[in-house]
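Tutorial handout. Part one gives the primary structure; part two gives the three-dimensional structure as tokens.
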Amino acid sequence: MLANSTDYYVHTLPPPVLKVLGGALIVAGILMCFLGFRLMLAVQGNIASMLIAAHMLLGVPHFFLAYGVTAGKMWCMIVALLCAPAVGVLAIFALLTGSLAGLFGIALAVTLLVLIAVNFGNVSRIAHARREMQRLDAAEATARP
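Part two.
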């Protein structure tokens, strides 16, 4: 049993494998934005415009997901789990338009899925420790004269 909020603070620190997931999410965001810009320069038409928008709408949130995952927010893990297959699908479209970066995107999507599966327990532990720290701090604040 942990004694005070300082003991719980240690459990809120992300392990190295969770930091790797955060880095992989940042790389996925950069890749999606890069592929969107590449499509913008290479292809024109209504379908291409929708693909460009999909790349950008998927790429930009990855930067925020990277922060949320390393901070121990479970909803960010769930959103990242939903976004990872979309990275692979959009990378396939990039590969079909002639970009070899699509191969990297497919491999990155698989890597993201594996890292997310490995880190669910870590994020849960961090979220639990944060809740306990807040509970203990609130109890200390009410106990003070």
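Part three, for discussion. Residues 15-140 form one domain. Residues 101-143 form the longest helix (43 residues).
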